[in-house]
Amino acid sequence: MTLGVEGSSLNRGVRPHESPTPGDSAASEPAEQVLRGIGVSPGIAIGPVMVLDRRGLRLPPRRVAPEAVPGEIARLEAALAAAAAEGAEAEAEARSRLGRQYADILAAHAAMIQDPQLKADAHARIERLQISAEHAVIEVLEAHASRLENLSDSHLAARAADVRDIEARIVAQLAGGRPASFQDELETPSLVLTHDLTPSDAAQLDPTRVLGFATEAGGRASHTAIVAAALEIPAVVGLGPALDHARSTRLAIVDGEQGVVILDPSPETLARHRAAAEERTARYRTLSAETGLPATTVDDVEIGLYANIEFIDEAAASRKWGAAGVGLFRTEFLYLRSPAPPSEDEQFAAYAEAVQTQEGRPVVIRTLDLGADKLAPHLGVDAGVEANPALGLRSLRFSLRRPELFRTQLRAILRASALGDVRVLLPLVTTLNELRQARAILDEVAAELRAEGRPLREALPLGLMVEVPAAAIMADRFAKEVDFFSIGTNDLIQYALAVDRTNETVADLYSAADPAVLRLIAGVVEAASAQGIPCGVCGSMGGELLFTILLLGLGVRELSMPPHQLPEVRRLIRGVRLEQARAVAAEALRLDTAAEVVALLESALRPAETAAAAPAG
Question: Of the candidates 95, 136, 350, 612, which lies 20 to 30 Å from 428 by C-alpha distance?
Fold first, then answer.
């Protein structure tokens, strides 16, 4: 678990400094800056910083040594020439393929790249401020774009996008193209600050090299946030414009619990966060001693605590933290980590390993859930194809359109089912027809395997992931045709409230405490109870302490979450009485706003935490 980690320079107790340049205020000791976002993966990471631009290109440190200035000017001139040539080629191609109007736009871009004033201004900044060519280009063109954006003339204001396109073209030439992985360029374990990371980018992160990360974009329930929690890398998302502040940063703190990023922290701030990291480590050391205790309420009702996993390594971590099994195995990351679709045998090996680590405990394997912000171009899943991918061809819809992929995955799952308590979960089911089509394919694949003489689990439990309001409303009908429900609160909230969960500009509207969401969950739990099937929660709500009492009061008896959240949720459950939880849930369902619900839940949480922390006897 990443509780508090630092880069190598900090481990030696050294804070790097640069020699100031006389008359250059930018070269003076930088002041501490605090950027606030959304903490999505707990822990405190401290270390040097790698900044990536919006296209994922690494930006070098802003300052360069005096003797490096001539080399930076040479790089600038070469990049301007290459970008101009590239622009001219693009113009010629556009003129033949798209016509004069579009070609004229690109011709204007090429002319701007060759503008002597751009070259002169960038030259001057490199020489006067002793900065890299990349930063000189960015600073000159960003200033120009900002001036255009502030003009009252809308036509001129729109030219800001043209300026930024030119900026990106020149910086790309300077960077020499994006490396296979920015991690390959890390000389020491570092923090990564960027505009955004796709889930596939996040899935490639190496926790031994990336101590923590922060992004300008994203929300609490984005899949990138989920991956960060799975890898136990401290992360903050939704910072808003931050890269300009970070480009000359030498040292930073990412506090995934408080949702802050601190650039160039003062010695006092560093000391405070180091102490907080040590305190967190001590708290988890205490909690780890409780993993053998049952997750039972004060009135002796047992709650099933399961682990959400993306990667095989997490299956072992789930056992370490006392999970009753795997409540959600997100299989799409097998696809996101691979340049080609994994074969049946490759998938079987992964599922089999996960099942065997659980030693007979349940393993719920969710079928492929690609689309929206989880893109796999090698499968034809690309955001550029659809105007609104969150409402498009994703998850089970995609699997039903690509039956060859779906059948391959089901064959692997069914083969693994012979090794333990395997259950299948279907994502983003919207209609009964979709469910029935999926079940029919599952039955066909099972028949094929039996004909081949392969062992598999008979009467394999089939579950439905309730994450679309349509499924929640029709839960009484779905409950008659499946063996269990698992409520995916992340998408359920997104679709119920019409809030893109990856969009930082509306993050404040995305609330699990919204009364509409609570009513949907209550209806699903009631429908499952009436039919006598289990109903658990596997979305982010399942691991958030604020909602534990509420969910128990609504009748949820199974919670699934990232492994590192299990210890604190277990401890809280041991301080809760179901009678009190039911009263809290009933009151919450009578409230009108999310703010009122949050206040109620916070008032209920404090005494429960106190009771849970009290020594037994």
Answer: 350
